[in-house]
Amino acid sequence: MTAFPVTRLRRLRRTDALRSLVRETRLDLDRVVAPLFACPGEGVVDPAAGLPGLAQRSLDELVREAGELHGLGIRAVLLFGIPEEKDEEGSGAWDDDGVVQRALRALRAEVPGLTLITDVCLCEYTSHGHCGVLREGEVANDETLELLARAAVSHVEAGADVVAPSDMMDGRIGAIRAVLPETPIVSYAAKYASAFYGPFRDVAESAPAFGDRRGYQLDPANVREALRECALDVDEGADVLMIKPALPYLDVIRAARERFDCPLWAYSVSGEYAMVKAAAAAGHLDERAAALEWLTAITRAGAEVIVTYWAKELAAWI
């Protein structure tokens, strides 16, 4: 590089048009996934506390919301379910008439062309709120695998295009791949035991009744362990790796992007969204500018797809 004054990097920053021409990282609606929360009932839109614009929705309202998202250019949604009843095993997760299964059938019929991804976990369906079967107060990893596989099969039979196991049990990708050889699997490969999940657990009604999930989710201090998790999931048959949360773990996203050739996603979680919303409501920052910067940073780190609660707003912004 020739030194100043010949080299003046500001020359390409003078106008918005110039800045756009040389922009290295771009947000793209084709690479955005919107989370949706299905609940029982009819005509239900139950707003999520601390998450403006988000809500539990009954099937009729869910179809309406998904249709609006699709019309705005959002091409994929990630479905979570809030069942009418919960039990020790989380059997609602694989019930053929479960809330997610009914939502899948309705969305497949009413919003053709929308890619339907389902979260595969038991925490929303278990009475204790943990992600697997409990034995003597501990999650029984190997017993849980069969149940996760049953849930994944049930989702696919109901119309899911993609399944996304988020439970963090060892061996769950292999268990699901064994029964679904043709279905794409998005693995929450590096899911951290994060403080940023709080608002989500309220809307999904999935907070553990006791203890925490540090025994199976990743320690926030570890990067090498996250890469080992990613490698194991790729070996077991995962098609896509996902890092969750996103912004506090940009280094993990970057490390995974440099190590693995498969598609890499990131989940910008509820706590990230809620912080910006609260700060904007208090007048401390501009939400649009902050959110776009936030999501651009996640993309710049190496994520090719972002699961984000800003999906609908992003469609208007870009």
The overall number of domains is 1
Largest sheet: 10 strands, mixed
Structural class: alpha/beta
N-to-C series of helices and strands: HEEEHEHEEEHEHEHHEHEHHEH
Please give the structural blueprint.
Blueprint: H1 16-21, E1 32-38, E2 45-47, E3 55-57, H2 59-72, E4 76-81, H3 99-110, E5 115-120, E6 134-135, E7 138-139, H4 141-158, E8 162-165, H5 172-179, E9 186-191, H6 198-203, H7 224-236, E10 240-244, H8 250-259, E11 264-268, H9 270-281, H10 287-301, E12 305-308, H11 311-317
Parallel strand pairs: 1-3, 1-4, 1-12, 4-5, 5-8, 9-10, 10-11, 11-12
Antiparallel strand pairs: 2-3, 6-7
Helix pairs in contact: 2-3, 3-4, 4-5
What does this structure look like?
There is one protein chain. By secondary structure, the chain is of the alpha/beta class. Helix content is 38%, strand content 17%. The longest helix is centred in the middle third of the chain and has 18 residues, at 141-158.
Give a nutshell description of this structure.
With 318 residues, the chain is an alpha/beta fold. The chain has eleven helices and twelve strands.
Overview features:
318 residues; alpha/beta; TIM Barrel; ten-stranded mixed β-sheet; two-stranded antiparallel ribbon; 11 helices; 12 strands; globular
